[in-house]
Automatic annotation (TrEMBL):
Top enzyme category: ligase
A GO CC term assigned to this protein in UniProt: mitochondrion
Cofactors that this protein relies on: Mg(2+)
Organism: Populus euphratica (Euphrates poplar)
Reactions mediated catalytically: (6S)-5-formyl-5,6,7,8-tetrahydrofolate + ATP = (6R)-5,10-methenyltetrahydrofolate + ADP + phosphate
Keyword Lipoprotein: no
Name this protein carries in UniProt: 5-formyltetrahydrofolate cyclo-ligase
Molecular function terms from GO: 5-formyltetrahydrofolate cyclo-ligase activity; ATP binding; metal ion binding
Top-level division of the source organism's lineage: Eukaryota
InterPro entries per the UniProt record, alphabetical: FTHF_cligase (IPR002698), FTHF_cligase-like_sf (IPR024185), NagB/RpiA_transferase-like (IPR037171)
Amino acid sequence: MWRSGLRQRVKELLMILPSCSFLPPSPSPSQHVAFTKKPLLSLANASLCSPGTMSTATNLDGIFKEKQVLRSKVRKSLKSMDPSLRSQEDDAIQSLVLEAPWFKSSQRLCAYITCSALREVDTSKLLSQILQNPTKDGSAQNAKKLYVPRVEDKNSHMRMLNISSMDDLIANSMDILEPAPVDQHGNAREDVMQANNPVDLFLLPGLAFDKSGRRLGRGGGYYDTFLRKYQELAEERDWRQPLLVALSYSLQIIDDGAIPVTLNDVPVDVLVSPAGVIPISQAALNRMQI
């Protein structure tokens, strides 16, 4: 595990060495307060590239450690979450997504398969809706194509492969369900990176989020790495960028700015919690016609 973490820090270092661009200041703290905001070693501090200050590597090491501390706190909170409350919030979050116009109108989606051991927001109802027979209501226009993650190695490499049924999933070495690389006929599954049409929507997991769009993952860098690559692909092909939607329990939403970030961290466009749908980016506001 420590090697994976070290590789991730090296990748973050390589990404910020060529330039000294910085993130904009965070908005005022949200009403969902789970942790106290404090000064951070983040790239929002312009002194990182000033002569005589700590090296970039040192600052990245500080950010990495702060992320680890925050992950530990959130994991403990999730572990102590009442099961009945978890179930209620799962239902509320999925209902909000299912009723959202941006979900109903989406045709191609990437979504995670919930792992109960990781205490992620449940997506079973969402996946069932996506995979349902499009002729069920007499109309094919509601048909949706689904891609789900398959981890390839410990170097943050992940693919999103098309499935047509939950039976297409198998448990990996960590007992996490993922698609087999080939279907029942021995044919390679369609990889979203080779698809001819753009993805409309990503449903994303995470450990912590804030209302400015910051997302704290589990430390492997799989989603951030994949999202960067897909965003680059969409830009190359002149496609509209997909809407990045994070699903969050109430306790996972923390103070704006309390999540330390680097240039490698991809912000989300929309945050969905039991309290409602929070559009964050201009793309989200435009798509929701707010």
